[in-house]
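Help! Submission page says 'invalid entity' but I think these are all valid:
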Amino acid sequence: MTRMVRSQGLTPRFWRFEAMDRSAPVWVLTAAALGLLILLPLGWLGFMSVSGEGGITLDHYARVFTDLRLQKALWNTVVLAFWSGLAALAIGLPMAWLSARTDLPCKRVIKSLVMASFVTPPFLGAFAWVMLAGPNAGYLNKLYRSLTGAEGALVNIFTMPGLVFVVALYTFPYVYIMIVNTLELIASDLEEAASILGANHLWVALGITLPMVLPAILSGFILAVLQALALFGSPAILALPAGFHTITTQIWALFQYPPRVEMAAAFSVPLLLATALLLLVQKRLLGRRGYAAVGGKGQARRPIPLGFWRYPALLGCLAVLACAVFLPYGILAKAGFSRAWAQPFTWDNFTLANWSFTFLYSSTQAAIVNTLELGILTACVGAGLATLLAYIINRKLIVGHQLLAFLVLAPVVIPGVVLAVALFIAYTRPPFLLYGTLWILFVAYLTKEMPVGYSQSDATFRGIQPELEEAGRILGAGRLRVLYEITAPLARSGIIATWCFIFIGVIRELSASIILFTPNTKVISVVIFDLKEEGQFGAIAVLGLFMLVMTFATVVLMQTLLGRDVLGSRQSGG
Amino acid sequence: MTRILFVLNLIALSLALSAVPGFAQDARAEAAKKEGKVVWYTSLALPSAEKVAKLFEAAYPGIKVEVHRSGSQRILQQVMQELQANIKNVDVIHTSDAGHFVLLKEKKLLAKYTPAAVDGFPPGFKDKDGYYYGLRATVNVIAYNPKIVPAAEAPKTWKDLLDPKWKGKLVTAHPGYSGVIATHVLALVHLHGWDYWKQLAQNKLMLVQSAVDPAGVVASGERAVAVDGGDYYYYQMKKKGNPIETVYPKEGVPLVVSPTAIASFAPHPSAARLFTDFTFSRDVQQVLADSEGLYTGHPGVKYPADKPKMSELKLLTVDPEELEKRNEEIKARFVEFFGA
């Protein structure tokens, strides 16, 4: 602050030139790092998919699109994604409306529980549902048989509908969050006008509210579909035992010995294009949000009284959350403390052996250390990088910042398995030999979490007006100093939230890790998957619970540090 | 209780081992201790593998065993992928697919090493060139849950499983994951042809991966009958009080001898040799037979009375070279019939 005040020629252009002078290398390097992070692997993926022994070839694509089994996997994925999206909508939409517009009791509890299902690793949910709804040994099916005396099963989780159900349980929060956020932004004048004119609540909801949130509904649907397309763990746990593949499990299978990496690459590209297309549609939908009613914060609105339906509605919400949270967590806890998970929970069946076995297993210990290291490292670097990028893009610091904004969000369309295939190809050869080290997982996680981190940071910087920064600049501080001394403290809570989101995302990651790990670089999710393949239910339950505890500790930490509800602040998921 | 027994067992064994003169204190042990650890890629069921590792660590304090347990096929995949990326991590490779060792030997990835105690082992447990030796053996059996299927109605032969009455009630492990199962599939192809598998698939089997997993599936009652799987794990599960009965079909039971070998590029060669000798010692082989229910090649090992002797069984054997050659065919056709 003691420097000379520059008084002459404060044109914006001069400012920008000045900025180039001192801090430009930082911005350019950040941008270059991002470019390298994303373009290098995708370039390799594209190249590998057309490379044959005699140069460029389309053979791999030809095989992908003529092989009946691969086509079936493709079709299964389409079916899974579409129905999961629809089911997520069917669950998320009414719950969102109830939370945002009505006098539903216990709204905060409902929101927290949706948050819980949002952060639950989907593969853990799928695993728990094996124990809940396996056609014969599943807990719920046994209960059903003993209550009704029936022979068959109520639900068979090892089917496509079963898979859709479980996937929807953990993707509906995307729809819910999207719609709750929009509903809270929409002024309720129109709804009230309609009420005054004599329309009943249902009519208002269907005739006025629904059309206004339609873009958010469609966009939530697309987000859910994107999630379902990219999932690896749930289909691996529920579809493989039933004898069918999805794209992601098929790509993983192509990696088994002898690996057919070119085929995996060629099979990855359609999935990549599909997700890119969906995201494009979503952007179009949101971009066209021309409704005058959306955008301004509405005045205080009176919640719609549900009357008689208050408690049935609450019960409905709780039933969904029981399926997503209570039942799976309960059965995991039971399995964690049982000798045999399918037997009644009696004193004879009680044991702590699963815990000692799990934590004494050398692979588990190493995996916990690896996971924590990766989680912390990725969260720190990721939050830093995302903050810098959001700053550069928001303040338009370099030429081509629009391109940067596109690049940083691009990984949203890259399913974890595809990203892993690309990274595997890119980093098992010079100049970057990262395979076999934790660094390749770090790069994978960083890339995968970049859109989430960026969205979070972007929202933060949008909320920080540039006046204070300008004041600092006028007083002679350089860009970097302003960023460090003024902007960063203001963005503090945003950065902490970014850190936590990335950390939670990393510790549950499975779909990229399963292709990139080596025995020395296992992470918890991979160990869980390994144990799953061997059928060690007790140990899986223990590790799963451990993972949940870590996740919820992070959430609680974040809520305490920030003193607010973090659910609404997340815009879109990766 | 079992844990206490295990600890006592461990103490007793380590005492026994340290009593053997020159066994624990030779120069090799010193060299191994300098290396500090041995990295073991193994397809032995995780609890059994962990037990062997803990026994070794108790016998040779200061040398850690890093157990990486996975399916045979996954282990081969890991070894190959690491090699491609020039990563040298594994010391001792142990899978249940003897074909792997033919392949690894051919690619010059194995070190020639003959463990101290294998002289008396039967020929089926030895590589003629001295690169790998059978650490343990198991046979594939049918297993059923007696709470669901009365003994009289249980399948007696492999062909019994083709009966449509078993539709939706069977579980199988996967040759794309497990060497025990890959061996089993080939053995039954010899016996009954690929048609057997094609027909079996009509019964809509549940697919799991590891050859030890069907035991859990049957014990929980999720499926009534397992059409394959290593008998040792069924034996262990039954010992723990799970409702499981095994059937040794009279057409013969596929024998799976699981070889072990030291990698030519092993980063801890002394520890690898020490560990290999240890696992072939009579004491450890006896542990494998006793508490793990495995068969071994060691002539001095005594078997539990509640398990059929290997000599009483009609064994179906598979030539490792053929297993290696037909590895891809086995996996591809299985997937063709069963879907995944």
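Support: the input was valid. A stray whitespace character was the problem, and the output above is from the cleaned input. Chain B has two domains: 2-136+258-307, 139-254+312-338.
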